[in-house]
Write a structure and sequence with these properties.
Distance between the termini: 36 Å
CATH architecture: 4-Layer Sandwich
Strand content: 15-25%
Bound molecules: succinic acid
Oligomer: single chain
Radius of gyration: 18 Å
Number of helices: 7
Largest sheet: 7 strands, mixed
Shape: globular
Length: about 290
């Protein structure tokens, strides 16, 4: 006998994303509920929840139901909550965190499986987050192009961030001075190479897996040779038809699967404060 579904799953766009209702994430989360949410994530690639009241401890507890929480190498975590980082932009600040299209921690040998972002304080308008679906973007390509891209591997390094942002006229940094920074030198010195087309370890779907701002070249190719295709891939993958846009409220959560989704935080709320809490869940080696 199948048990009745505990959550309601309402897709929010033709591409990806679903709003989840009928759940209070502060309450104990049983295995059935974890499985329902996990299955909704695999089907929709990003999930949105509203009206949740989660302090950092409760958020970490929810996140840990889906996998091992990991450290973030460049921002000091919240005091007493080593796996939760603040993502803050103060009214006087102009650059934001996560303001270019990317996939979380792709510059590590084992990038994040998923990210859970919780809205503590949001601007009156703006500050939305965009999500792009790598599976749909890959599927839309010609068979010849799919074959070609499947042969390519991308070299990543977080040091490229400033370089690629400047080159594309997006400013020197996506960092934010009010966020307490730290530097994990070991991560800076690591340059993993990942397949451009990733097979999702749970669904078997193939996705464009790619973060333009953390790379300047394909493996065994020069930056000059790589640039036109890297730029084209980003513009292809982020076409509106492959995306969805999330409008935050205080107490909203976005929970996304980094193995097949890229995202970008809009920086269109100058003079207002935006404050989020973020955790990431450890992933495996992309294949
Ligand atoms: C991030 O890139 O993880 C932050 C996204 C956001 O603040 O909307």
């Amino acid at each position: 006998m199948t048990q009745q579904q505990q959550i309601q799953v309402d897709p929010v766009s033709g591409a990806l994303g679903a709003e989840i209702s009928g759940v209070d994430l502060r309450a104990p989360i049983g295995d059935d509920l974890v499985e329902e949410i996990r299955s909704a994530l695999l089907d929709n690639h990003v999930l949105f929840f509203h009206d949740q009241e989660l302090d950092p401890e409760a958020q970490a507890k929810v996140g840990a139901r889906f996998g091992e929480l990991e450290d973030y190498p460049f921002v000091e975590p919240l005091a007493g909550h080593p796996k939760v980082i603040p993502v803050i932009k103060e009214p006087h600040e102009t650059s934001n965190f996560g303001g270019g299209w990317h996939t979380d921690l792709i510059y590590r040998p084992q990038p994040s499986m998923a990210t859970m972002l919780y809205a503590v304080e949001v601007p009156k308008r703006g500050g939305d987050t965009l999500f792009a679906d790598g599976v749909l973007a890959f599927r839309a390509l010609s068979a010849r192009m799919q074959d070609l891209l499947t042969t390519l591997r991308v070299e990543y390094n977080v040091r490229h961030l400033a370089h690629t942002m400047i080159q594309r006229g997006n400013g020197a940094s996506t960092g934010n001075r009010s966020m307490p920074s730290r530097v994990d030198k070991a991560v800076l010195d690591t340059s993993p190479v990942h397949p451009l087309v990733r097979t999702h370890p749970e669904t078997g779907e193939r996705a464009l897996y790619f973060s333009r701002e953390h790379t300047i070249n394909f493996e065994d190719m020069t930056p000059g040779e790589s640039r036109p295709l890297l730029d084209w891939l980003e513009s292809h993958m982020t076409q509106p038809v492959f995306t969805t846009r999330f409008h935050w409220r205080k107490g909203s959560i976005a929970f996304w699967d980094n193995r097949c989704v890229s995202h970008c935080a809009l920086n269109d709320y100058q003079g207002e404060r935006r404050h989020m809490h973020r955790l990431t869940i450890a992933g495996d080696t992309p294949r």
